[in-house]
Amino acid sequence: MTVVTTGRRSLKQRLAAGECLYGALLRLPSETLVEMAGVAGLDYVVIDCEHGPADTTALQHHLTAAAAQGIDVLVRVGSAEPALALRCLDLGAAGIIHPHIDSAEDAQRAVAADRYPPVGERGFATYSRAGRFGTVTPAEHLAASEETLVVAMIETAQACAAADEIVVTEGIDAVLVGPADLTVDCGFPGTDTIDKLIAATHGAAHDAGRAVMSIVPDTAAARAAEQAGAQLVLYNMAQVLMDTFRSLAAPHAGAEAAKHNS
């Protein structure tokens, strides 16, 4: 995380204070969307480098746009990508979302990628963007890195079974259940089965004092997630935008149908 000179509290500090934070999941490389999220008053954005582009030059532009609007950035990397996690954090990301955490060992590796020794194995450098290009002291840079948010994604039945061990791993700050991957891994069972697995995993996170992140498609689902105890509510912007486009196209489609039927 970049050393903050404005006094703005980190996501980690805000979660510790009990806040519920709202964010947007962006798979489309667009600094404008990042800026719009900040102008709209969202708390954070997630840049998806697992299912979206993982171009670190573009990512730096996104982070610069976010900083200008006072909004934090989390980055979802791919499975077991410590080198990418390092680059994202050096560029100033507020934290990393690690997919496919199936065990306590996986969780430990995720923490090791994001944290400096002795807790982790992240390479130390103060001349990166996160270190304000070498203008901060090593002590200041280390202190800022303590605010790095580490999010573990639980996406399989195996991970759900190991949730109690994953969430108590030192250094894990939050848990995100990936409902799509979990559904596929479980062989497309009924929604009741998936809902029970998600609820049990969220319960384990709450018991361990970890924050829960929930992906939602709309404001109604966002309110429900917050009421269920999620502190990190994340709008799936691909779904939000497609629903918006469809609603905009619906009047046109209705008018065309009426014209052909007249």
Structure overview:
With 262 residues, the protein is of the alpha/beta class. The protein is 48% helix and 16% strand. The protein is built from 12 helices and 8 strands. The radius of gyration is 19 Å and the shape is globular. The mean pLDDT is 93.
Sum up the structure in keywords:
single chain; 262 residues; 12 helices; 8 strands
Topology:
Elements (H helix, E strand, L loop, with lengths): L10 H6 L4 E6 L4 H10 L3 E5 L7 H14 L2 E5 L5 H9 L4 E4 L5 H11 L23 H8 L3 E6 L2 H5 L1 H5 L6 E4 L1 H7 L5 H17 L3 E6 L2 H9 L4 E5 H25 L1
Parallel strand pairs: 1-2, 1-8, 2-3, 3-4, 4-5, 5-6, 6-7, 7-8
Protein structure class: alpha/beta
The shape is: globular
**Mean pLDDT metric:** 93
Report the portion of residues in β strands: 15-25%
Series of secondary-structure elements, N-terminal to C-terminal: HEHEHEHEHHEHHEHHEHEH
The main sheet comes to:
8 strands, parallel, barrel
Fraction of residues in helices? 40-55%
Care to count the β-strands? 8
Termini, distance in Å?
Answer: 61 Å
Q: How are strands sequenced across the largest beta sheet?
A: 1-2-3-4-5-6-7-8
Q: Could you give a short description of this structure?
A:
With 262 residues, this protein is α/β, with parallel strands linked by helices. Helices cover 48% and strands 16% of the residues.
